Amino acid sequence: MIDFSLDPDLERLKARTEDFIRDQVIPYEGDPREQAHGPTDELRHELMAKARDAGLLSPHVGTEYGGMGLDKRAMAVVFEAAGYSLLGPQALNCAAPDEGNMHLLEVVGTEAQKDQWLRPLAAGEIRSCFSMTEPEGAGSDPNMLETTARLDGNRWVIDGHKWFITGFDGARLNIVMARTAERIEHGQGATMFLVDNDDPAIERIRVQDTLESSFAGGHCEIRFHDLVVTPDRVLGEIGEGYKYAQVRLGPARLTHCMRWLGAARRAHDIATAYANKRKAFGKPIGEHEGVGFMLADNAMDIYTSRLAIWHTAWLLDAGDEARQESSMSKVICAEAAFRVVDRCLQILGGMGITSDTLVERLWREVRPFRIYDGPSEVHRWVIARRLLSRARKQARPE
Ligand SMILES: Cc1cc2nc3c(=O)[nH]c(=O)nc-3n(C[C@H](O)[C@H](O)[C@H](O)COP(=O)(O)OP(=O)(O)OC[C@H]3O[C@@H](n4cnc5c(N)ncnc54)[C@H](O)[C@@H]3O)c2cc1C
């Protein structure tokens, strides 16, 4: 039996987070330090200082490493509240990719690695990035990984080419996925390395100009030229990188859903207020069925997304890997959030495409979520494969 009620402590935390976002974060929207490749570190630090004072920093990290130690269901509540402003996750230090990287370090890292990287990340002192995607190699298909790490004595030497590395500019830690076997087979053969991001063997080719602009440090194309890494920088076991990628990606997909649900709700509130106020043909436009139905569809998309997030969070808290459910939630929420924001833009008429409201920006920010952390098509394909395989196993001979 799934319990959807919030206990009084969580109700209070929800209200406290909502108040914090409204009173202390939203006033910063439009600050010139929000730039084309994300908010500057100066702005982030200013916002994080406020969250620290409010006792809201790093909700997802264990208390022993300096966070609030929330479980996934509590995170769902707090992250949605944070997502109501694009600056909210930055303020609470629970934005991608740091949030997923902190989770990965907490689950897989050694105590020494946690001391070196997790503690300063949780304190908001440093940033990190995660290097997986390649222009010619790994993308939707991780088995195409071309970046290699070869042993030279007891050191690893990494060579490869990556892009879309979110947060690369300004990150202190780079978590690099490289092939340590001839080929990837049965999910084995890739290894994760914890790399100092200022190593001169890492070339920053360019910052990529993208549709959205909310991730600190933007997205970069980079190259590793004989990057030497000592054995203590291996994260987990050699060859098990893809197992750990699931540790990172499963929950990280869901936390993206939580944050973007908050953003969708923001757009919906703006559109609802406009539909109540703006008149056409003698009455508020919301009272015309065409607009009213769009608002109703928004409410249903928001409701379905929250249910999907809550059920998956509940499974994860119970120790279930919830692979199928996180895939389904990712597709449900990414597509629903975009539909909601797109309808809101339509409801606002001409003003919708201007920067007079946040909706135009949210439309640009939400769209890429249908691509990263697995495109919708790939998730559907994986879900279908699991369904077919389960049906084959259950099928009895005629
Ligand atoms: C904003 C943003 C941030 C990102 N941040 C990072 C990051 O920090 N680190 C990192 O490593 N990567 C990052 N990525 C990369 C992201 O993970 C990849 O874009 C994603 O995995 C898809 O890979 P690809 O772009 O190479 O698409 P491709 O593999 O070229 O696929 C293109 C399209 O083909 C279709 N397709 C592929 N396979 C199938 C299939 N089996 N069935 C049906 N259709 C299919 C899909 O429609 C897909 O969109 C980011 C991407 C974006 C957009």
What can you see in these coordinates?
With 398 residues, this protein is α+β, with helices and mostly antiparallel strands. It folds into three domains: 8-122, Acyl-CoA dehydrogenase/oxidase, N-terminal domain (Butyryl-Coa Dehydrogenase, subunit A, domain 1); 128-237, Butyryl-CoA Dehydrogenase, subunit A, domain 2, CATH 2.40.110; 243-394, Butyryl-CoA Dehydrogenase, subunit A, domain 3 (Up-down Bundle), CATH 1.20.140. 47% of the residues lie in helices and 16% in strands. The chain contains eleven helices and twelve strands. The protein has helices spanning 8-25, 41-53, 72-83, 88-91, 98-108, 111-122, 241-277, 289-317, 323-347, 359-366, 376-394, and strands at 34-35, 38-39, 128-131, 148-152, 155-166, 173-179, 190-196, 202-207, 219-229, 234-235, 279-280, 283-284. The strands form four sheets. A four-stranded mixed beta sheet has the order 3-6-7-10, with helices on one face. The protein has a four-stranded antiparallel beta sheet with strand order 4-5-9-8, with no helix packed on it. The protein has a two-stranded antiparallel sheet with strand order 1-2. Helix 9 (323-347) runs antiparallel to helix 10. The chain is globular, with a radius of gyration of 22 Å. The protein starts with 7 loop residues before the first helix and ends with a helix. The model has no long low-confidence stretch (mean pLDDT 96). The site of flavin-adenine dinucleotide has 19 residues, from strand 3, strand 5 and helix 11.
